[in-house]
Amino acid sequence: MHTSIRLAWAALGICCFATTPALAAKPPNIVFILADDLGYGDVGCYNAESKVPTTNLDRLAKEGMRFTDAHSPSTVCTPTRYSLLTGRMAFRTGMRGVFTGVGGPCMIEQGRLTLPQMLKNKGYTTAMFGKWHVGMTFFDKQGKPINRSGLAAVKRIDYTRRVPDAPIHRGFDQFYGTVSCPTTDWLYAFVDGDRIPVPPTKIVDRGPLPKHAYSRDNRPGMIAPNFNLEEVDLVFLEKSKRFLEKHVKQSPDKPFFLFHSMQAVHLPSFPADRFKGQTKAGPHGDFIFEMDWIVGELLKTLDRLGVADNTLVMFSSDNGPETTSVVNMRADHRHDGARPWRGMKRDQWEGGHRVPLIVRWPGKVKPGSTSDAMVSLTDVMATCAAVVDAKLPTAAAEDSYNFLPVLLGTQGDQPVREYLLQQTISLALSIRRGPWKYLDHQGSGGNNYTRGKLRQYALPNTDPDAPAQLYNLDNDPGERVNLYSKHPEIVKELKAKLEEYKASGRSRPK
Fold this sequence. Notes:
Layout: H1 3-24, E1 29-35, H2 55-63, E2 65-67, E3 70-71, H3 77-86, H4 115-121, E4 125-131, H5 151-155, E5 174-178, E6 187-188, E7 191-192, E8 202-203, E9 222-223, H6 232-250, E10 256-261, H7 282-304, E11 311-317, H8 323-333, E12 357-360, E13 369-371, E14 375-376, H9 380-387, H10 404-408, E15 419-423, E16 429-433, E17 436-439, E18 469-472, H11 488-504
Parallel strand pairs: 1-10, 1-11, 2-13, 3-14, 4-5, 4-10, 6-9
Antiparallel strand pairs: 2-12, 5-7, 8-9, 11-12, 15-16, 16-17, 17-18
Helix pairs in contact: 6-7
């Protein structure tokens, strides 16, 4: 062979070899599945005594990594969703409580970098289907913003006007879902993009709906003719499946980010007809079963489309299990959605915010692995940034830490984060370092355990004069013994760090 030809082929070989690592490093697709009010103890791979089969989540854990010390940033949904999508603790906005009806405006400020926008900037197609619940602005016929809860506010909506702060204005290319809780809050209608194509026409008729201990959570709002309260999650599933099918067919070389945000298993527990009676744990058990089935359907779709091997799948919940679910499931079916933790939704105790977190990434995450790393859903943004090699600006994701090294098995003994912040519906705060957890308030920070059915779960106050609480989770995972007065030095340290993080506006180092 002529020398020049040999050199040309050699050069070509070098070029081809040089590009191989880049091809191997093709950005993964990312799917985040968020359940609603699903407790740590509701999932079989977290609770051997669960009375509800969760075969698909158990399979996901066998194929990926199960986190045992993962937390929702808040004990209720709206602030958790804000933090997941921004990497920033929601208490920093000053917004208290949760949105209902057409409450708004959007908590995510215009111009703030979001998880979907960050991925979009890296070439991803981004889509969300399901519950938004971070606020939207609707207008009346005079063009005035409504931003209120209640039936009267919904009746004022001019459905010809577009929403200026819908998910498609916060980083998502596509959105189909609901403004707030799909089957609870005053507006029972689907948002497509930034408008409601099929407006509500009448007050919801709750007469024909199922009646049981888990069904009493419907506000008497306005409902659209295409909105079936018992089929909502199946609508969301169909939208996600269609997105995946269309994207893989039309843009096979472009990565996608899918945020599938469920109604399940938020009350009312209205499983679709095909799931009723599928478990021996009543309608809420059936609803958990449906939730797990939906996870399975999404995983099957990834398999069928041939993209599962290059898709990072994350599954979690926005907070702990609802009080009604816990009380009745314990009494009627010996199923404990908060097991083994104290507290439930709204509470600062572990049961209110320690949640399942399962991550699968074939070829990257060791199958069947378990991590006890302390992480928060606020950390998803920094982790995804590391996955796609995106640099986070200083004024973004202020409370987000990267746990990619944990997923890859390269973290060693170093903690992902030294401190963990939590907040409740009332903006009560806590901070944790290792086993030491400081609650900057008395009581649960959420539910009232002095009356009603929760009174049976009240524990003796072991330090009644203390203005706050301190627990050692290694020795006392049930948070039964308040050590506030016995360890003033630890109280001082954690209180000071909490105040520092509040004043600085961030907990992630600059």
